[in-house]
Design a protein that fits this description.
- By secondary structure, the chain is mostly beta strands.
- The protein has a domain of 28 residues.
- The strands form two sheets. Strands 1-2 form a two-stranded antiparallel ribbon.
Length: 50
């Protein structure tokens, strides 16, 4: 697994990704999406790859 820590409001949040899943070839990936829930709040991530 890959983890990183980010600041969200007044707290630090640990984000973790599973790295054991097979991904398609890099040139086939066009966007990424994520969501996190904490203390009744929702963080949405929408990334476009170029």
């Amino acid at each position: 697994m890959i983890s990183t820590y980010v600041n969200w409001g007044e707290t630090t949040v640990k984000l973790t990704w599973k790295s054991d899943q097979q991904l398609p070839p890099r040139d086939r990936i066009t966007s990424v999406h994520g969501y996190c829930f904490k203390d009744g709040q929702l963080l949405l991530v929408n990334g476009i790859l170029s």
